[in-house]
UniProtKB/TrEMBL annotation:
<protein>
    <recommendedName>
        <fullName>Electron transfer flavoprotein subunit beta</fullName>
    </recommendedName>
</protein>
<dbReference type="Pfam" id="PF01012">
    <property type="entry name" value="ETF"/>
</dbReference>
<keyword id="KW-0813">Transport</keyword>
<dbReference type="InterPro" id="IPR014729">
    <property type="entry name" value="Rossmann-like_a/b/a_fold"/>
</dbReference>
<dbReference type="GO" id="GO:0009055">
    <property type="term" value="F:electron transfer activity"/>
</dbReference>
<dbReference type="InterPro" id="IPR000049">
    <property type="entry name" value="ET-Flavoprotein_bsu_CS"/>
</dbReference>
<feature type="domain" description="Electron transfer flavoprotein alpha/beta-subunit N-terminal">
    <location>
        <begin position="23"/>
        <end position="215"/>
    </location>
</feature>
<dbReference type="GO" id="GO:0046395">
    <property type="term" value="P:carboxylic acid catabolic process"/>
</dbReference>
<keyword id="KW-0249">Electron transport</keyword>
<comment type="similarity">
    <text>Belongs to the ETF beta-subunit/FixA family.</text>
</comment>
<comment type="subunit">
    <text>Heterodimer of an alpha and a beta subunit.</text>
</comment>
<dbReference type="InterPro" id="IPR033948">
    <property type="entry name" value="ETF_beta_N"/>
</dbReference>
<dbReference type="InterPro" id="IPR012255">
    <property type="entry name" value="ETF_b"/>
</dbReference>
<comment type="function">
    <text>The electron transfer flavoprotein serves as a specific electron acceptor for other dehydrogenases. It transfers the electrons to the main respiratory chain via ETF-ubiquinone oxidoreductase (ETF dehydrogenase).</text>
</comment>
<dbReference type="InterPro" id="IPR014730">
    <property type="entry name" value="ETF_a/b_N"/>
</dbReference>
Amino acid sequence: MKLLVPVKRVIDYNVKVRVRGDGSGVDLDNVKMSMNPFDEIAVEEAIRLKEKGVASEIVVVSVGVKQAAETLRTALAMGADRAILITAAEDAAMDIEPLAVAKLLAAVVAAEAPGLVIAGKQAIDNDMNATGQMLAALLGWGQATFASAVAIEGGQAVVTREIDGGLQTVKVTLPAVITADLRLNEPRYASLPNIMKAKKKPLEEKTAADYGVDVAPRLTVVATEEPAGRKAGVKVGSVDELIAKLKNEAGVL
């Protein structure tokens, strides 16, 4: 079975995000970029399924700017077999919206015919949490989101999902779309030999026009603001005073 794993190039999670002076968006100048952490988890899960003999090939795909090739090489170094880069923007500040990404991925699925798509549940830059669900809808496939455990049993995937009330286990018939949550696994580090080998693995370059998908944005960012600074705390003299502040000032009681 072939596995398809979409990955996204985002600001590294260790970097403090800066807002542009004019509030038009996030400043990306000289900022370290890396693979979206949830996508990294999805790649790791695909590799583990291959190591178990469930999968025969892992294809990673990224939609965005040409620099996303670096992100794909990271996935190849982790253990993916080949990669597809779909250039859909010239400016790194342009975020391709989930519907356009889902349409492009649906076209890749039609060409590659994978038995399973494993994606990160969301990207840490826009927190949309929509691409996987949209892809499943476009394909007419079953979906299992927020996966914290995945097992393949015959022609079905048994997925444990993290929900507000605890854990939920579902079965979806393959082919299907699964989105990875934070506790699904701990991604491995790419070794130096594998990093060198990744440079020789095939990376196919495509454009959005090759798939006939319009990636023009439908949303407009009106303004971007940094979170308000945290206010200084206060000391209370008694439990009664604490309860009064929580009730009258914080409004949490």
